[in-house]
Amino acid sequence: MSKFTYSKFYGGGDTYFVVSKEKYTKEQAIELAMSELVTSKDVGLYLAVENLYVTHRAGVDEEGTPIVTWWLESWKRPKRSVPVWMFEIVYRHITDMNKGEYILIRAAKGERA
Length: 113
Prior knowledge:
Elements: E1 6-11, E2 14-20, H1 26-36, E3 46-60, E4 66-73, E5 82-90, E6 101-104
Antiparallel strand pairs: 1-2, 2-5, 3-4, 3-5, 3-6
């Protein structure tokens, strides 16, 4: 079993919250994402959920710096990768892309729906 649990990933101006399928149930992962990613300004938007993978390997970050870290991988499973749920906050019109599951954000952490 992998050491990866969950983490935020950043790229292209977007923030993703990624949770290990090996260590958390989907319900626990959604709870974590709502707690770690969602703010009050996101109420009325959607939490997109996709099935992806992470791999611990060497690579180059967006600034061109070599780094060894966890990398979010595409939809084809690489060797020695960890299956994960990736969460992203999206606007309603993006849900038309039909890439995964979408959960309406009714309230932020600590607020009532």
